[in-house]
């Protein structure tokens, strides 16, 4: 199990509601005290086992759903984090959704439409690999993309002023508050990768034939907008981290410690729900005993 110092430290990754965030002042590499890479493998295995038990209770309790959101710069390890979380879950109770460039059909609806369709049902866990936050990230760095939405009040890039983006943050908060009030627990993880580490991972993908498929020249083009993306993330973290849908900024330069932190945070949040297997009434218990007796007396 993770030690108490580690458990306490990861709570500092949580962004308090309304707090200004300066990503350049936050760590991108974290080596948890008292835990090394080898020890983390055992702790991660234990976390996976615990996560499986919690999922079973979640399904049986059938009052909550869980939505886990991952956002990050390219090569930050979103896919690996999703795979790790998935490794401890029953696939029948999990929905993993990855959102890429919206289709023409999706653009003919509001930008929540395609995300709303993928929300987990009660008793389920939903994982969003990228999410509705792309609409205040990619679109903010490349505002011309918003023109494809054919919004009545947006005729040109100049129409997307500060008020426009503030309205989007409020829309996102309303969307998340609505699903939260109806039983969806929301956990949002921003994998905070350093620019030099991203460069190293890009070069590794180019040098390693088995990883060539992971690299795209489009990734390199987006890297040119690094500072703009950092600014966009800082603003969304400040304006959309809430008590009901908190953001956690996870140092992502070390993949193993990032996955360890994510696992521990998810477990801590699950435990706070105090979910349990449904308790049956005395009458139901008697029916079960009768059923057992009938089975035992079968010939």
UniProtKB/TrEMBL annotation:
Pfam families on file: PPK2 (PF03976)
The UniProt record lists the keyword Transmembrane: no
Superkingdom assignment: Bacteria
Keywords for this protein: Kinase, Transferase
Domain Polyphosphate kinase-2-related: 36-272
InterPro entries: P-loop_NTPase, Polyphosphate_phosphotransfera, PPK2-rel_1, PPK2-related
Keyword Kinase: yes
A single GO molecular function term of this UniProt record: kinase activity
Family as reported in the entry's similarity comment: Belongs to the polyphosphate kinase 2 (PPK2) family. Class I subfamily.
PANTHER family: POLYPHOSPHATE:AMP PHOSPHOTRANSFERASE, POLYPHOSPHATE:AMP PHOSPHOTRANSFERASE-RELATED
Annotated protein name in UniProt: Polyphosphate kinase 2 family protein
Species assigned in the record: Rurimicrobium arvi
